[in-house]
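Quality-control log, excerpt.
Job 1 of 2 completed; input and output follow.
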Amino acid sequence: MYFTARFQQNLDWTDHTLILPAVAVGNVGQLTVDLLLSTLEVELVGRLHSTAFLPLVGPDPFHAEPKGIVTSCQVYHCLAHKLVIVQQRAPVAMNRRREFRTSLIQWIQEHHFKQVILLSSCFAHFRTDKDLLQIPLKFLCTPDLTESVGSYLHSSLGWRSLERRDPFTYNEDSAGVLHMPGSGITRSLFEECSTKKVHLVVLLLYCSEGDNVPDAFTMADQLNNWLQLISGSDSEKNKSWKVPVSWNLMFGNHPPKNIY
């Protein structure tokens, strides 16, 4: 499989956090990344090219007067917060998932990121009664981050880690599997990162297909509670996120004339 990363300059990201979305139910990860890219001061620094991506090209999603185009997968740099943010706008072909996952992990390892955060989602109807009393977010940490990052997320932010379940009864079972239907490559990527000692944290939001904008705000707010990307009280945070102009076309509005 062809996979390459093209950047405008050589950058040292050893002290940076990589944030990337999983193509999953409701596209919550990608919508959240859109909020990050629209709100933070970021610079487009490159693109990921792979024969695994379904081809895509479109107008600039962040400016009313387009300043360029978007492709299947682009890479942005936020110097202020030492973030590298990947936006994947096209899904991976079903028969290329394993190859893509291997190539993606290899790219991550080559750049020696401090940690990787995967924004993902899964079907809400698999929540338990206990889950209904909490925020619809759970997390997973690879073994090397369990004591440090995992303990902080649980004790300081009140997040709960995703439990293992029996694959037939769905009851909690420490010998069971990580049950996250609708999350795309999230589980396989997490398991491979665990094996290859890649520092990965998965944020998993329970949701249903539909208007997933509120879910994106929920995930962005929770991520902000951790990384402190924007300021403001809890009641003000949604007002602080800048909504991309492309969201005006989310539900079938007339397409912009400049795409023709």
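Job 2 of 2 completed; input and output follow.
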Amino acid sequence: MDKFYKETLSKLELEISELEVEVDCSLQRIEAAIHLILECLSELKEYVLKKGFKNTNEEIRFFKYQKPVIVSKLIYYNAIYKIETRRPYGNKRIRKYFIKELKKLKRFFDNNLDFYKYYRSNNSFVDEKIFVRGKHDIRLWLDTFYFEADHTFSTSHDYKVAKIIANDLIQVYLEDKLNNLNLKKTSENSLKWTASKTALTELIYALYSQSVFNNGNTDIKLIAKAFEDAFNIELGDFYHTFMELKARKINRTKFLDNLCEALIKKMDEQDEKQ
């Protein structure tokens, strides 16, 4: 089981990372990621139902530590999709909206404090009741969700573990968004980069390669930082993004090629008007 799980998880994480390069729209990327995770869970379920587990310890390990990692990705991307599609307009309203979402996470934490303590302190004295299929105790922090779940591939608490993991990620996401709002320039004339981060990384490396700044005596990090400040964007690990661009089998300079085509088209249109 461990080998199959590790291979499945590794494949999923690679496919999700590839979406960062291949898909420009963030919402489309999230939708594609959700689809990949659902496929992954389907494969895991098929394997579990067919092969089963060697012993109780393997079953507990799967439902306590392994399955929740993948399910947490599904919860995370689904939550981010909802957050982004419901996001209001205006910095003040957005800030209020993000704070409200953070309060939801806090309520879940408060309502499940005992289980948080149990899980995060790595206790195991009730593992056979909450991480083995077909066993449940309604007195042990049981959610209504469990009664609607497929009990051949669920225990009473594996989803709650996934929720804990996902909420940590969602909290980081929301706090990062709030920090960006706090750091964002308030000038109405400030420019905002609305294309993908991958596209901007491609442009930055093209300019860096052409040595257009300080006769080529400028570090790529300084150039990236200048663009981040100018366009109110955080590129993150832009070097990793560049390596993914290099790894593309076709159309490695997609954004630059589109720029050239758009500029030539604009010139041709103006020539026709003269």
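Post-run check on job 2. The radius of gyration is 24 Å.
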